[in-house]
TrEMBL record:
It comes from the Bacteria. It holds the Pfam family MFS_1. It comes from Microbacterium testaceum (strain StLB037). The chain crosses the membrane at residues 12-35, 47-67, 167-184, 220-242, 254-275, 282-301, 307-327, 348-367, 373-396. The keyword Lipid biosynthesis does not apply. InterPro entries: MFS, MFS_dom, MFS_trans_sf. GO terms for molecular function: transmembrane transporter activity. Its main location: membrane. It is a multi-pass membrane protein. The lineage of its organism: Bacteria, Bacillati, Actinomycetota, Actinomycetes, Micrococcales. Residues 4-397 form the Major facilitator superfamily (MFS) profile domain. Keywords: Cell membrane, Membrane, Transmembrane, Transmembrane helix. This is Predicted arabinose efflux permease, MFS family.
Length: 401
């Protein structure tokens, strides 16, 4: 743990990203209740949330190009300030009672676009802050900070929204991004030898094609991204749509909160394990371990008791985190620095693009067939996708030590 922390740039990166995630974890709770206080309509809330998601996916590729063209630290400062401005505006509108659904949708679009710029830059910045030998513990510490920040932010958000209202929760989010921007300015990084020439005339499309070549030329990358396009659609659809439905019919809503907390605790435990365990073929093991994510989905279908679900979701959280850390380390060591942000952006688009499809399909299917068969189908899809990726020799050839 102390290895990465001995490097000042990494300490500032860790502090900035953890601060931002604390605020970002308050925002969904505060925004949800702000919209419900405004109109009481779940459909309106869906429009506001979907606007951000669509803008985020639509802008990710451009965000990757921007992060490879410009100094990544400067990109993160700018995107944090823009996020602070949009969230501060939403907070002011809510607090003054002048918010409306159209303006909230518009600001959510801007916020989603800003996030799309910051995500590839933040992920690609890690190799600039520590030596290559410390990438695995550095990524583990970052993930530990993000998970801890998420827990703290969600807890603070719930208390603030209940005590003083959603507008103040959104104000906390804006303040967190402003503080993160200040922390990002403290990053002192060596001049990137791979940075794009400011006078270069290459178009965005040219740079996107170059990024695609880096992405597509590595078989292990696109195979894993294909795995997660399918896996994420099945897992997110099963847990976010059908999970609460099953909870309502069996062990209750309060128990579902405990189940979600168990997964978060599993994520934190996975990061702690990754700090000490450095297998040579961490990526292959991480990919294969994602089969265990089918376990909580299957338990929801077959035996939805609170104790079993807490254990199953905790195990799934450990597997997710071990994969995520190995994936980041693999990309950061195998992809050229000058294209890393663009490869990350292709990864994110491919991994998330099918999630809305899964969320849309599972509801009607459960209405026709019942929730248990659909959940078992989602579990089977997760296993099949994992077997497909796990059988690829290219995945197992990637060495992370």
């Amino acid at each position: 743990m102390t290895g990465p922390l001995s490097h000042a740039p990494f300490r500032w990166l860790l502090a900035a990203r953890t601060t931002a995630i604390v605020g970002n974890s308050v925002a969904p709770i505060a925004l949800a209740f702000a919209v419900l206080d405004l109109t009481g309509s779940a459909a309106d809330l869906g429009l506001v949330v979907a606007a951000r998601s669509i803008a985020n996916v639509a802008m990710l590729l451009f965000g990757g190009v921007l992060a490879d063209r410009l100094p990544r630290g400067a990109v993160l400062v700018g995107s944090s300030l823009a996020a602070a401005a949009t969230q501060g505006t939403i907070a002011a509108l809510v607090l003054t009672g002048t918010a409306g659904i159209p303006i909230l949708i518009a600001l959510s679009v801007v916020n989603g676009a800003v996030s799309a710029v910051s995500l590839p830059a933040a992920a690609a910045l890690v190799p600039d802050t520590v030596p290559a030998s410390l990438l695995r513990p550095a990524n583990a510490l970052l993930r530990l900070g993000l998970n801890g920040g998420s827990i703290a932010g969600a807890s603070v958000g719930a208390v603030v929204v209940a005590a003083v209202g959603p507008g103040w929760g959104l104000a906390i989010d804006a303040a967190a991004f402003a503080v993160a921007a200040i922390l990002f300015t403290r990053l002192r990084l060596p001049q990137r030898s791979d940075a794009a020439d400011p006078g270069a005339t290459a178009s965005v499309w040219t740079e996107l094609r170059e990024g695609w070549r880096e992405f597509a030329s590595r078989r292990w990358i696109w195979i894993v991204v294909l795995q997660f396009a399918v896996l994420n659609a099945a897992f997110v659809g099963a847990t976010t749509v059908l999970g609460p439905l099953v909870a309502d019919e069996t062990f209750g809503r309060g128990g579902w909160g405990l189940v979600v907390a168990a997964q978060t605790a599993g994520l934190a435990l996975g990061a702690v394990i990754a700090l000490r365990w450095h297998p040579r073929r961490a990526l292959g093991l991480g990919v294969a371990g994602m089969a265990s994510v089918a376990l909580p989905v299957a338990v929801l279908a077959v035996q939805p008791t609170l104790a079993l679900l807490v254990v199953a979701f905790g195990v799934g959280g450990v597997a997710i985190e071990l994969f995520a850390i190995a994936w980041d380390q693999s990309l950061q060591t195998q992809v050229p620095r000058e294209a890393l942000s663009r490869v990350y952006s292709y990864d994110m688009v491919g991994s998330f693009v099918a999630v809305p499809l899964g969320e849309i399909l599972v509801g009607p299917l459960a209405h026709e067939l019942g929730a248990p068969p659909v959940l078992l189908g989602c579990a089977a899809v997760i296993v099949v996708a994992t077997v497909f990726a796990g059988c690829s020799r290219s995945v197992w050839r990637v060495r992370t030590t």
